[in-house]
């Protein structure tokens, strides 16, 4: 099996490369610059896709690439996120169609769900007339657009997509910039930095579902055996944790004590975001790690790689 991995230099991508390298799968990495990715057999920039040589019958594409906005363009970040992610998705789908690929695995997000839902259930279709949360609408629609495209490409080109709607993934290889990392790794850096207090922006009672990247990688790996269908699964732990409890549990695993301060403004989307993971557990035989189990390797990695 050969895997063309879009976004191989990113957080999820680097974890996938490490997993598949250990399993002796051949990974062709695609990233923005073409800079070599450790563990990949070859690396190409997104602008050199025509240079890739492979057998489409034996190859699966995996798309975990995403645009992270430039903080210097804060006022336009929402527009940037939508425009850049949609353009990236177009390149991936067009490449797969042109080269005759039949299987694609893709990262999506629970942000695609309408904002009013008490529980985001992947057993039910998304109502595209119901708006996602206003604070992440541009990002949500970039993901919704990719999901819509997948059904067009299946019908027209026979390209089958299995997508996974992430819910706050965390783990090694995320950004070491607290302003760019996902929520849980950003909290890990707050525990490890020199600040004598642990600040929480926004409401500490906000609840989120945090999923360990090792479980994300496991889902993608198991999906490689599937063929011939387009479907989307929530990729989440199935339980929520408040931001306050997240900070407390991270510090407990790290064996660090700091007083927690909250009250600074923050934009976190809905107060509570709950997802069900029953379908992915049933269809893929998945089990999910506890926060403490996932945090142990995450904190160990940040202790090696995070510099204050």
From TrEMBL:
Species whose genome carries this gene: Candidatus Phycosocius bacilliformis
Keyword Oxidoreductase set for record: yes
Domain (NAD-dependent epimerase/dehydratase) spans 3-235
Q: What is this protein called?
A: dTDP-4-oxo-6-deoxy-D-allose reductase
Annotated metabolic or biological route of this protein: Bacterial outer membrane biogenesis; LPS O-antigen biosynthesis
Q: What is its EC number?
A: 1.1.1.364
Q: Tell me which domain of life the UniProt entry assigns to the organism this sequence originates from.
A: Bacteria
The UniProt family comment states: Belongs to the NAD(P)-dependent epimerase/dehydratase family.
